[in-house]
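Chapter summary example.
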Amino acid sequence: MLVKRIFTFDIGDNRIFGLDILRMLAIMFVVINHNASLLPSSVYTFLEYFIFDGVCIFFVLSGFLIGNIIIKSVEKNGFTRYELFNFWIRRWFRTLPNYYLFVLILTVLSVLFVGKFSLKEVFPFLFFCQNLFHVNDSFFGESWSLSVEEWFYLSIPLILFCCVNLFKIKFKKSLLIVSIFLLLFYTFLRHYMHHNGQLYEMVDFRRVVIMRIDNIMYGVIGAYISYYYQEFWMKHKYKFFIAGIVLVFIWKVLFYIYTDINSFYYVNIFYPLFCTAIFCLLPLMSQYTLKKYNVVATAITYISLISYSLYLIHYSLIKKLLIDHIFSFIFAGDYLEAYLLKNTFYWGASLLGAFLIYKYFEMPTTKLRDRIMFKSNKKSNSSPLEFSKKIN
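The structure predicted for these 392 residues follows.
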């Protein structure tokens, strides 16, 4: 009974199971991809056929969630400074406590066990500046994607707020203009920098904030259409889904044809194509719910819920520090038993750690945000953030 209480939590009601599936797939693709060096090369080569870009899925999903939250909040309460601050409070209490917990853990372990480690390496990661313009893998490498999202959370709502309150452009029009402008701007920026050879200086443009923030806008556009053109969104969900599946497989074929990350295709088409594919899946997946959960559905939902903690724990802490460094003497070797031991520890420690962190740290710190929300003078009968509760 005690064990059951420790390892279970309420998954909530009225969840959007289709989005849980996408988020579960996204984190699994990321964790499996980072598992490459712990597997025999032949095994990973086989698995790679079934692995897609999990980070892109996260970006589009995040844009869809944030877009829905902002739209529903603004349409119910107006775009006041209270709504802007409340949005930031809710986002940052959702993401920052967990992130800084792992920054602290990694810092302490690195000071104790990594000989050439310097505290100066941590500083850019405190303010999400580690990959604004260049890649920085020195400390918490996989946090590059969180940095992209945090700059999105800060900048896009602020731009929209200025459009509405300073330039007096209606919110619906502002959202559409900003979304299309950013998609076009970053597309031309990548093309320009590629044409002038500047992308080579970034080492890996895929993990730079200014090169990837537009990926999130595909989800925002999905939120825009789903709210303002709901009938169209629902009517054509199966057509969109089929188109999305086709685009995913086209993307996978091209993945094996164009392997140079600085090629024209990789820079200009690779990510927009995959983000468009995920966008096409959203109409159906955002309407797919379950009345009853079997074991498989429950497992999918659990993994979806712990995905953020799993993202933070699995690579720099479990793989790089514990497996590759601190306990490398235990996991050394290229024989079958060593591979089994490494993978058992990698998956077991990652999933168990993520589960415990989610239940006993992430959930409690996230709930704190409700205590310090700013109160708007404008009253609403229903919460504009109801949508977020269904998939958070």
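To summarize the output: Residues 9-391 form one domain.
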